[in-house]
Specification:
AB_hydrolase_fold; ten-stranded mixed sheet; alpha/beta; Rossmann fold; four-stranded antiparallel sheet
């Protein structure tokens, strides 16, 4: 059992629930605006029924973004694009940031297709950290309800800039995994760049994980976690940027511990790792590689660039501390970050990690294809591989 200090000051005194709109495919602007100003500019007024703090303006950046993405301080032209990161987002001359994807939401509740029930909770209102919780329908639990279930803590992808646990992509994915694997899941909503630059999302996810651990012994604020979770069987998972965060969390558990929690496994699906020097297939796709580099610099305007240890595991001296016995590493044949993902396994072994890594590669597919083509045969196979890993004794 891994041990450390107890949950810090971010632990809420009472459980709060989010009132997510009940209309399917509701544009995310009706939850909070999908357009923002850079932190250096005064905010524009938005008439939204619910303001999620994680999507309000952040404090000014601690470091200066690359000059190519700095917005003008004038608001004379709100239509001129000064930096285009399509299909993720655009920055306008006025400083407004428009998210181009990951803006739709689905409500929580009982999913009739998978018989999985979900709800939204507030982890830290002050810091804008939320989560969507999933459980197999309690009347159909197998094994019986008195037997605890494994826990999956999931962090979504989206280049650290877009998507949420409330989007159709992730809501439907977690419903499928929870139903097939018979686990409880916590899908974390962390604050996103550029309003909240990396590593804000990583820190938010760590706070969320400590909040989850506060339910060890059945003494937390959420009934589902108290009643149904076996904290001796906890998994971390994520895709793309979320897989990057899942790796970070696993390493942090290994270096700091987490009282009462045993991290059994980590699932990294098409993990977003990068570096200053071209690696593997990146050398043959320079234009695409430049876009990935620019996207990272946009999300994390630090002096270390793409060799920051968060994005480049080869620069992380703590990598071998990954606190799990098993790792499932999923890559896609046509994915630009495929070779970085495979290299992650080699780096773990070189840095003294003693666990067992299982690698699965999907042929003829690209980055996070299972989210864009959830009903294709390869997507079903990938989900089954993840489920098999979670159910493995």
């Amino acid at each position: 059992m891994i041990r450390c200090s107890s949950l810090g000051a971010h632990h809420p005194l009472t459980l709060k629930y989010l009132n997510i709109p009940k209309k399917s495919n509701l544009p995310f602007v009706n939850l909070t605006s999908n357009s923002f100003l850079l932190p250096s500019l005064p905010p524009k007024a938005h008439n939204n029924p619910l303001q999620i703090p994680s999507q309000k303006l952040a404090k000014p950046l601690n470091s200066t973004p690359p000059s190519s993405i700095m917005a003008s301080t004038t608001t004379e032209d709100d239509s001129e694009v000064t930096y285009d990161l399509s299909p993720v987002l655009k920055v306008y001359k006025s400083g407004r940031i428009e998210r181009l994807a990951g803006t739709a939401v689905l409500p929580a509740g009982l999913d009739p297709e998978t018989n999985v029930e979900s709800k939204d909770i507030v982890i830290s209102e002050e810091n804008g950290i939320y989560a969507r919780l999933f459980v197999p329908k309690r009347t159909t639990f197998s094994p019986p309800p008195q037997q605890k279930l494994p826990l999956l803590v999931y962090t979504h992808g989206g280049a650290f800039c877009i998507e949420t646990p409330f989007s159709p992509n992730y809501h439907n994915l977690l419903n499928k995994v929870v139903s097939k694997a018979n686990v409880v899941a916590v899908s974390v909503h962390y604050r996103r760049a550029p309003e909240h630059p990396v590593p804000t999302g990583h820190e938010d996810s760590w706070i969320a994980l400590k909040w989850v651990a506060s339910h060890v012994g059945g003494n937390g604020v959420d009934e589902w976690l108290n009643e149904h979770v076996d904290f001796e069987k906890v998994f971390l998972a994520g895709d793309s940027a979320g897989a990057n965060i899942a790796s970070y969390l696993g390493i942090r558990v290994g270096t700091e511990g987490l009282l009462g929690v045993k991290l059994e496994g980590v699932v990294l699906v098409h993990p977003f790792f990068w570096g200053e020097e071209p690696f593997g297939c990146e050398a043959n796709r320079p234009e695409q590689a430049k876009k990935i580099h620019d996207l990272w610099r946009f999300a994390c305007p630090s002096e270390s660039g793409s060799d920051d240890p968060i994005i480049n595991p080869s620069k992380d001296p703590k990598l071998g501390k990954l606190a799990c016995e098993r790792l499932l590493l999923c890559v896609a044949e046509k994915d630009l970050v495929r070779d970085r993902g495979l290299y992650y396994k080699e780096l773990l072994e070189k840095n003294g990690w003693s666990g067992v890594a299982e690698v699965v590669e999907t042929k003829d597919e690209d980055h996070v294809f299972h989210l864009f083509k959830p009903n294709c045969e390869n997507a079903q196979v990938l989900i089954d591989q993840i489920v098999s890993f979670l159910k493995q004794d």
